[in-house]
Amino acid sequence: MRKILMLLLLTLIISFASCSPSKIKGTDIEDTPDNKEVLKVFDEYVNAVKTKDSAKIITLISDSYYDKNGTDIAADDVDYDGIVAFMKSEKYAEILKINISIIIKDMTVDADKGFALVYYYYDLRFQSDSRLGPDGKTILEEEKPKWYSVDDVNQIQFVKENGKWLIVSGL
Diameter of the chain by CA atoms? Predict the structure, then answer.
């Protein structure tokens, strides 16, 4: 009887272990089609940032993009047109090189509602030919071009529109 109970217990343990959701390789993120698709779009965005491919970045952004930049000050809010204008601006053109490292901290996808969040840490270094400092006001006296560094934790939000995941906030 004891051998039968042990065999039954072992069978249940193996059964539960095999039913647990599989994870995307190298992450703790559940391996689902929507999770993979959101991560694919996020990866396309990161690669477009690295290569300064503004046209690609624009294709990954929803027309309904809107970001309050973490404040209640309306003056720093940015929408789709603001992102496009920046991508086509002289200030963006002055960025010569970009190096970025990303660590995904967490991810939430609600496929039924067509909404996803990716929480990530980034370490961004960029070389600029601009004479303005990162604050946009200070005139730099150093020689050009200059390297700048920014690191932070951020969240990027996605919505599913016409069957495709697009960025709706967080750039």
Answer: 85
Reference 114, options 68, 59, 162; nearest CA is 162
The whole-model pTM stands at 0.79
The backbone torsions φ and ψ at residue 56, rounded to the nearest 5 degrees and listed phi first, read -65, -45
Cα–Cα–Cα angle for 132, 58, 62, nearest 5°? 120
Cis peptide preceding 145, ω within 30 of 0? yes
Which has the closest alpha carbon to 169: 106, 116, 112? 116
Q: What are 33's two structure tokens?
A: 């089609």
Cα–Cα distances in angstroms (integers) from residue 150 to residues 111, 120, 171, in the given order: 32, 14, 14
Residues 6+ apart with CB under 8 A from 22: 30, 31
- Region of residue 105 (phi > 0: left; psi between -120 and 50: alpha; otherwise: beta): alpha
**Number of Cβ within a 10 Å radius of residue 47:** 13
* Segment holding 78, helix H or strand E: strand 78-79
The pLDDT tens digits for 102-152 are: 999 999 999 999 999 999 999 999 988 776 656 666 665 666 788 889 999
